[in-house]
## 1
Amino acid sequence: MSETVNEETVDESAGDEEVFFYRVQFREGGQQSTAVATIAGLLAGTAVMVQTDHGLEPAHIARYSATCGCKGQKRQASFSIIRPATDEEREKFRGLAEGETHAFKVCSKLIETHQLSMNLVRVERFFNGSKMIFYFTADSRVDFRGLVKDLVQEFRTRVEMRQVGVRHETKMIGGIGTCGRELCCSSFIQNFDSVSIKMAKEQDLPLNPTKISGVCNRLLCCLTYEYETYRKQRKNMPKAGKKIRIGNEDYLVKRQIPLQDLIIAENSAGEEVALTKRDWKAFLPVKKEVVDKKREKKGGE
């Protein structure tokens, strides 16, 4: 089951029926998503039928997701739990993962047979058997028409080949990040945000690619988490390279330390000092014209 979801806002206070939130998994070891239900007391491991954009899909309850405790607060749910799965559906669900593993092996062999320059990442089969999606990565466009024809003959269902980028590949495969935790993309991120080197600069991080790149060899997704906080903190702070006057003393700002509201500045004696927000919040910028006039006056003397 693809993790592409459309989140809907659910009002816990709306209507007479009480709603409950659960974390569900469509495949063992896969990403957990939040699902809403009107059924209380669903235990971890319970197989349920979940409404998706292409029909009902089975999933396991990972855990109960406690409410925020704020009355009238709205929450986000990616899916809706319709009902517990029947015995027949549970049996079919158990064989679904095995069928996808088999399809992966068959497709891998066919890729070798057709000598295609592509790397198969994952196979998903709809629970109703109406469609199979084969996710792959490739450096360029691939003519897979022959491959699709063979797959259709093998599985007797609709086949879709979907090319994904390296970030989506890592999301599907999963892994452990440099922080020692499960990768954000495979644990909770639903949609990728744009990440730029500017975000690393704003947070004073080393611009060494090995330090700010993830398993996918792209910039770390977590660079976006604190970027706005740093940007807002820096907004009202004097910028590096700027000359400011505090009282009767002139300073040259060397760098900012946003999370501590500190700036490191050089005074007229050439010494570096740390100025707190109390010091610099009422600073006056030293205008260029004033600096130029002082230089002219010294030159005339």
## 2
Amino acid sequence: MSSGVEADIALDAAVILTLGMNRVLGRGAGLAGRGAEALAALAAGRAEARATALAEVRTHERALRETVERNARIAALAETRAKIGADVALPAPLRPDEESAAELAAWCAATDPVLDEAERHLSEHLAAQITAQVFAVPDGGLQTDTGHGASPAPRVQDDVQGTLERLMARLLPDAAEEERRAVAEAAGLLAGTGTPDEAEGVLQEVRLRIQAANRRTEEHRAQERKSAAERDAAEQAEAERRYVLDSITTAFEDLGYEVQAGFETLTADGGALVLTRGGWPDHSVKMRVDDAAHVRASMVREKPAESEDDRRVDVEREREWCEAFEAARERLAAAGISSEVAWRLDPGVRELPVSDGSRQTRGRAGRRERHRERGQ
């Protein structure tokens, strides 16, 4: 953008971690606690204090994420329990509001074996269900759906049933309905077997189907984890973008500017801002923040310059803007947003571009409306 500046920006680790914690806790984007302490230590040049505070933030953020993972596993097991009608106890999810990092870590460590045991019981329940269907004996003998084949001897039947139960217990309890059905169909073939060799052939097919079902279930779990990670990354990026926009708005408002959201903010990945101030009837600054990583700003005119006096005023306004930008950079640094100027155009080097009149007219109308609202 001409007659302006471009800068690369980066968020401090304390800001990134704290925004993540705030999202997990369902709070706003304001920094609090150890994150603020780390920023304060950074501003004061106290490296050791900053390292200590930042380490505590990292530990707490990691404990929060691990807690969220356990809560998600509890929810998934509860869904499986309802689907197969099992009576298996599950721990209650933990809402990590006031717990310390150590308390969260201790809860996760104590919950893991409980969840492992619950998953094992769910698998056993599912195995018992399917085995009971295969070896139902309403008339005193092995049920035969196919109508052919002799029932095996009692001992052989017991051995086959025990083997099937052990195999079925390997089936992951959250396998999809079609996967469970495919395994049950294979197991149902035992009803038509008459010899141990025939039974072993069917059991081998059951093994293969269970392996395939578990593989697809693990793939589904991995895809769910990937999707959750992508959602988390998108939410984090949005939180960082909003934090940068809010911090820029606050910094320039403190310097006497009125900051309005641009028309692209609601649809673009970044955000557009328009800066004006009293005594600037013919000038404004358009600013764009891309992905909380790059900022571009350009001063523009509301109408074309018509005289040398207009151009002199342009240079004065550009100088004012350059000074304000440097002052804002200091304020942003205190908020954990560092910036490195990649390109700058000195005042007076080029004529200021003229703003899109239709947009600026709507922008001024919006500003007048907000002034009226504030005055009521």
## 3
Amino acid sequence: MSNGYILIGKEKLHYRKVGSGQRILMEFHGFANDATIFTAIEQYLHNEYTILSFDLPHHGNSKWGITPLTKKDLVFLVDHVKEEYGVEKISLLGYSLGGRICFTIVELMPVSIDRVTLLATDGLEVNAYYSFFTRTYFGKKIFRHMLEKPTLYFKLLNWLKKKDLVDARRHKFVMQSLSSAENRELLLHVWLGLSDLIPAPEKLKAAISQYNIPVSIFMGAHDKIMPPALGKRFKAGLDSVQLYILDKGHRIFDNENARQIANSLL
């Protein structure tokens, strides 16, 4: 294993490099994780792949300020990796938020994708709440005020949940994210900093279908954050998409099923 950085503008994206295979796998972790999260899966892949596992901005060892990570930056990142290793195609592995990053790459650069494996993935549909809070003027104002004065919103969130205006999974996520200053700062930077990376579902599906990209999606039967119904709706009409529903929650992978997940990339 080795470590390195890729310079994107003035920012430095950190990655772990594992394996010695001829194929290239780019990995992207979830919110509040880091590049080490896939180690259980990597042990089955390192002979076939050279694996680059990235720390997303504001995570792990990446040195990142306030600059957003944009779609243009993702294209640059993939092109840089392809040129560095002399390959025409790369494979992708993403968990939760990292799955949304992978989906964005697929939408932007389908001709560059070999195969994709996604775990409890975000990006299966457009999240109206996220789009409002990160991509509209008033939404951003409310979002920042919520992070500065979180106690003012606790009663409101509880009331919205009681009235079924906010579901239990979003209520839990928001309450946890507002629970400490450290969590609020991370949420602020990540939500706003990655808000450009929202794939358009119809364009994404068209790209997968046109280029017949093999996509394996693993979802947890008990996942309240990314319920498997999202995967079922996304898969409809896409012959190259395989959906696996495991007896897990949102943290869907561990030593027990790592080999099964790895096999989807082999």
